[in-house]
Amino acid sequence: MSKHPASDEVAAALGAFVGGGDGPTHTALTRAFSRAGYGSVRPYDASSHDFRAKPNKENRIRDTVEAAVRDPHRARELIESLLVEFRSFGFFAPAKDPRAETERRAKVRTLQRAFARIDWELNDEGDLRPAGVGTVGSLEGRPAIEDQLERLRRASDDPALLLGTAKEMLESTAKYVLEVFSVPYGTRTSFDELWHHARDRLALLPEQVDTSKPGGSQVRAMLGAAWTIAKTTNEIRNDEGTGHGRTLPTGVTPEMALLVVREACSVAELSLATLDRMMGR
Known about the structure:
Number of strands: 2
Structural class: mainly alpha
């Protein structure tokens, strides 16, 4: 997983949106640059009579993102700040004019490809995340889930963003299990419902454990703890303030967030391993 979503190709793709002066104002761009600590790279002085103090928007974006490639300590914050301004301006909303919409979609696709080359995903609404599983719609989602598990196991930067990715990975794992067992689910099926039905099919519900057998009580307790981890991952991810480009809730330390991410991986791995055993793999 790339530690930051900046590259020279991303710089060019972002700059293309504002070619000809289109897009957010220079003031908005300056605000985005400054929020991430790159405000001095390509400043704009509207009061100056020197044309060199008034670079165009495309060059400002390209030069600033390229500077973040060289000094990436806050590169993700820069990219997220620019995407905030782009979303606010409407670059990720359909244009009414068919020709303008064709051009807009082409720019979005170019930017998506640029992010994909460095293991980041940009959806059509302009939200950015590490490359991962997204929504599983078929049984071919298993390799993507396993790839995301490996990425999450290795990653240690940006716990807030990793929590969001872990939540998506858990949701996709539950959907994958249900698809294997041909259990239907819909777009309104909640995270809790998905995991209840998945655990039921895998016989991983605590109440399904025979506590009369040696170790049964301990296994029941462990399965209850596993569900608590999955549920907690979803709840923390849904708390206001968490997610892509944001911060953790004030009561959650980065170390605790990473613990939740690692344990979420263990829950997914337990589910996949149990499924393989049941399928005779």
